[in-house]
Design goal:
Shape: globular
Largest sheet: 6 strands, antiparallel
Strand content: 25-35%
Number of strands: 8
Distance between the termini: 32 Å
Order of helices and strands: EEEEEEHHEEH
Number of domains: 1
Length: 133
């Protein structure tokens, strides 16, 4: 996570993704977790920064929190923020998140990004295990 943000508030939406077909198929769990730094990284796309943190992984759904930070120019262009975010998530599902389809995109709310470091036993550490039923 960038040190320049500190306790700076950003916005967050909860995104629900549904597995396509059999749960035993290969599913790419969306995340911006950096295993070397053991922290979530900010990424850039389409004029904004985003961070993806998985919050629930099961055979029925994958739920992630999408933290985002828009610049003033992009926020002005994105009049319907939820529609803009839905388009962004749909593009990610098509391009990168194999085995998943979009279920729902929640409403944006103000939030603080997750802590800079992740304690042992974080969801990223257990994703290698079987999905819960």
């Amino acid at each position: 996570m960038s040190a320049s943000r500190g306790a700076h508030k950003v916005e967050r939406v909860t995104v629900t993704l549904l597995p396509r077909g059999d749960a035993r198929s290969i599913i790419h769990i969306p995340s911006t977790y950096n295993q070397v730094q053991r922290a979530y990284d900010w990424r850039r796309a389409e004029g904004f920064e985003y961070m993806i943190v998985p919050t629930r992984v099961s055979s029925k759904e994958v739920r992630v929190d999408l933290f985002f930070n828009f610049g003033a120019a992009v926020r002005h262009q994105a009049k319907d923020l939820q529609k803009f975010l839905r388009h962004f998530v749909e593009a990610k599902v098509d391009a990168e998140w194999k085995g998943l389809k979009l279920g729902a995109v929640g409403r944006p709310t103000a939030a603080l990004p997750p802590r800079e470091t992740i304690v042992r036993g974080a969801i990223e550490d257990i994703l290698g295990s079987d999905l819960e039923n």
